[in-house]
Inverse folding.
């Protein structure tokens, strides 16, 4: 994920030039008792195992063996539960003009349904631990247990349990590649608009898995497995999809998680939801770790972003909130 500096400028430009935006469904929190929404049981042990399985391949950096193996693993896993899995191969360039190949993975459930929800996370891990306290680690690749694998692990478990409760809800789960390969802090680059981040979502948002694809709304998960969870109402999410964010935060509060899903509006950040909102015009929110004492969480873009800092309880909380959101539409 990109840092939060230049996105403030980008956000100002968006507000200046966008005279309209796609409307979002109004929250029904006033008439829905979310505590009575029945959801399939989310298994935190399974979600944790899926996060670990990704990390066991090694850093999922562009065109590495670990990336190839992990991508194949994700495709095979999702194929067990989805009606269809699309593999979207694409080419892009990194901040230093290096050409790379990426793979977005899209799992489709109930493809005949016109009302659709899209859930997403990125599955690559950062090639450089450029925020590590030890300068010797700045050019080493990271595990990305929280920054990447945690969101994917939650969505894998959601995919596994989705059919346990009969439903007709259209659901698409997208794993974006090449999200976390933006300019390292130690490098110089002429990229000033942060388009060197979120390469997979930039491609998918302009070239969805089938023509004219749309969804009622979307939820992006990023860094959702840390032991000390803290989510705030991120600025871009509130601009594009405030009713969805309010609904998700209401659901979290109904489950007793208002100390985790904080009712606080915070700065906009560059993440995959930016491009989904801007290009695909699907209102998408970002559920992303926000630590007021540091950038996102203490081990962001460091060698310590590993399984030792992943909490099963955190994965369960996020999974249950997402499942309740999905099944509240039925």
């Amino acid at each position: 994920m990109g840092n939060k500096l230049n996105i403030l400028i980008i956000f100002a430009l968006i507000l200046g030039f966008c005279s309209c935006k796609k409307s979002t469904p109004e929250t029904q929190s006033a008439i829905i008792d979310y505590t009575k929404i029945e959801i399939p049981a989310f298994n935190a042990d399974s979600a944790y195992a899926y996060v670990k399985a990704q990390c066991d391949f090694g850093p999922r950096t562009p065109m590495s063996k670990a990336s190839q193996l992990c991508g194949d693993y994700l495709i095979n896993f999702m194929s067990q539960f989805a009606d269809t899995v699309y593999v979207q191969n694409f080419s892009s360039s990194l901040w230093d003009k290096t050409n790379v190949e990426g793979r977005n993975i899209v799992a489709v459930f109930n493809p005949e349904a016109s009302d659709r929800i899209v859930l997403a996370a990125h599955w690559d891990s950062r090639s450089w631990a450029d925020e590590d306290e030890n300068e010797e680690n700045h050019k080493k690749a990271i595990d990305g247990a929280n920054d990447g694998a945690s969101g994917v692990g939650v969505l894998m478990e959601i995919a596994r349990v989705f059919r346990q409760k009969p439903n007709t809800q259209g659901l698409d789960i997208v794993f974006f590649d090449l999200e976390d390969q933006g300019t390292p802090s130690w490098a110089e680059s002429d990229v000033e608009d942060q388009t060197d981040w979120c390469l997979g979502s930039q491609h998918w948002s302009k070239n969805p898995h089938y023509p004219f694809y749309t969804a009622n709304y979307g939820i992006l998960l990023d860094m959702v497995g840390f032991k000390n969870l803290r989510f705030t109402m991120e600025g871009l999410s509130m601009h594009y999809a405030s009713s969805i964010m309010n609904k998700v935060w209401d659901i979290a509060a109904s489950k007793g998680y208002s100390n985790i899903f904080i009712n606080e509006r915070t700065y906009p950040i560059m993440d995959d939801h930016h491009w989904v909102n801007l290009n695909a015009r699907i209102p998408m929110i970002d559920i992303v770790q926000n630590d007021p004492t540091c950038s996102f969480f203490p081990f962001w873009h460091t060698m310590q972003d590993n399984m030792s800092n992943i909490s099963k309880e955190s994965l369960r909380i996020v999974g249950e909130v997402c499942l309740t959101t999905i099944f509240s539409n039925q």
The chain is about 35% helix and 15% strand. The first strand starts at residue 84 and ends at 93. Confidence is low (pLDDT under 50) at residues 12-29. The two ends are 33 Å apart (CA to CA).
